[in-house]
Amino acid sequence: MLASLSSVFSLMLSTLLMMVAFGLQSYVIPVRSVAESWSTLTVSIFATGYTLGFTLSCIVTPKFVLRVGHVRVFTALITLLSIAILMCGLFVDWRAWIFFRAISGFAISGSYLVIESWLNERVTNENRGLLFSLYLITTMVGTIGGQYLVPLGDPTNTSLFILCGVLFSLALLPTALSSSPMPAPPAQAKFDIPGLFRRSPVAVVGGILAGALSGAWLNLGGVFTQRIGLSTAEGATLLASLLAGSAIMQIPIGRALDRMDRRIVMVACGIVGVISCLAMSASIGSSPAMLYLMAACIGSVLFPIYALNVAHANDLARPNEYVEISSGLMITYGIGTIVGPLMVGPVMDRFGPAALFIVLAVYFALYGGYAAWRILRREQHQGLVAKTDFQATTVMPTPGPDVTSPIAQQADADALISDDTVPLWERPSE
Question: Which residue from 19, 101, 149, 192 has the least number of CB within 10 angstroms?
Fold first, then answer.
């Protein structure tokens, strides 16, 4: 486990800095939108640009990773994030923001894909849940820190947008200057959503619903805080409370994920999400402290559920399929992020800000309910692929084919799987 952590330390540090900038961006955008008197529907429309870019990146980014490797692609994507937020500060028009937010969605999606496929090279089935929980804690801590930068500046001018661009640029340094071994480019860059669904239906459906949940909250949560009359500082605290609840629960959920059927954890998270969202909708108008508590309960399951889908799908994957799996899951997640804001925005305009949490409760109910149904359809260990520790699979370069070539990668991956393992694409669907 320590070897796995040390091999991705620089990546984690870059992720932390990236998410500080992302947290600042995710709050300054809706606050500025409200200051410009844009409707919730308008915010949902340019949020769709973000999600379309997000989904497109799932298709395009693996091809770039195949051609030039993880590090160069990560550098390019972080640069795009910096450019996009700076352009939002320079041109404050919601029509222009559709394009700028699409660039941002493309870059953040690709960054997640690179990070998660990189992490998957360093883990086993036994520690995947815990390591991904640590990764998600890093993202939560960074996002919380970024959101608390908003009250320190004025969202109606360019200062916070410039600061956000600087932070994104700083995120390049740890990975660019790291001496840790870099992951080899994948042997192939493709995605197969129907094949992924046959392999893990619960991961695909769960990915869509996780995207709908996070997309609705990330794009409209800041609008919600403004609509119910919270100050900028109180709104930042509410958003931070939701992320704090998520960070606190990452380790317990990660440990539970490694000790029982992952789908049981999905059902439990769905139930907690439904109860928490309904309680939050009933708490509108209460003291800020009560809202913070309810937000923390929602956050305890809202963001961790994506890791459940990733872990479950990768249990059923060969080592050379991690980029393909990450790409496929990010596409399903992207589809969900398109649906989430578009469905919630008009509902909030018609029924008020509390309607946000009614819709989120429906999403959570669908998430937990589908996982419960899949438990009845497939045994827990059916289709699992055994994997060894990262250190055990590392080989020293020897004369002959380049160990980073697609041929060498395929040979190494095949060596990890016993002769009697049936290839994933030949397994019957359940």
Answer: 192
Distances from the Cα of 216 to the Cα of 41, 212, 391, angstroms: 12, 6, 40
Residues 120, 121, 125: CA angle, nearest 5 degrees: 55
| pTM of the complete model | 0.68
Q: Are 73 and 153 in contact (CB under 8 A)?
A: no
Chain-centroid distance of CA 47 in Å reads 16
pLDDT along the chain (430 residues), means of 10: 62 91 91 87 83 84 83 92 95 91 92 80 65 78 88 89 95 80 60 74 89 87 88 89 83 77 87 95 89 93 83 68 71 83 84 91 94 76 41 28 32 36 36
Alpha helices in 283-382 (DSSP H): 288-302, 304-315, 322-351, 355-377
CA 250/CA 260 separation, integer angstroms: 16
Residue 170 to residues 69, 102, 121, Cα–Cα distance (Å): 20, 22, 25
- Distinct helix (H) and strand (E) counts, the chain: 18, 0
